[in-house]
Design brief:
alpha+beta, five-stranded antiparallel β-sheet, 33% strand
Length: 144
């Protein structure tokens, strides 16, 4: 007889019976610790917040980037602190397994192709105050 635990392991692609089982890899496919990943993610997020702050400095509201942790992806939320009409939206996703920066496709799901990597030196190349760039921008940059 198959236990509920075994059945879930086969049917759910992101199933992990223990959160400690998450494996983190850097841009050279070398395994790294969760702390190492979080350090790079936080440094990248500080750089992103600087871009956002520069953009909204002439407006009457404030905007902050906040992390919502998920199983595989960290969701980066853009939160508008406007007393009259505050709102939030998904700004980006970061893949915990390899550090890829992803544009959101929906509220819960990232788009397919990476827009950069938090471990790379040029990680801000395709990131603006509004989030990761569209693929058209990246293709035109490389002349495709």
């Amino acid at each position: 007889m198959i236990s509920k635990h075994d059945a879930n392991a086969r049917t759910c692609p992101y199933y992990s019976p223990n959160k400690q089982d998450m494996k983190y890899y850097d841009n050279k496919d070398e395994q790294c610790s969760q702390l190492y990943y979080e350090q790079f993610r936080d440094e990248w997020l500080i750089e992103c917040q600087k871009l956002v702050d520069e953009h909204v400095r002439n407006y009457s509201w404030e905007q902050s980037l906040e992390i919502s942790k998920g199983r595989r992806y960290d969701k980066i939320m853009s939160v508008h602190h406007d007393p009259e009409r505050g709102s939030e939206r998904v700004w980006a996703f970061v893949d915990k397994t390899n550090g890829d920066i992803l544009k959101p496709a929906t509220w819960r799901k990232p788009a397919k192709h990476a827009r950069g990597n938090i471990y790379e030196e040029d990680r801000m190349l395709f990131v603006s105050h509004s989030g990761p760039a569209y693929m058209d921008t990246i293709k035109s940059y490389y002349g495709a």
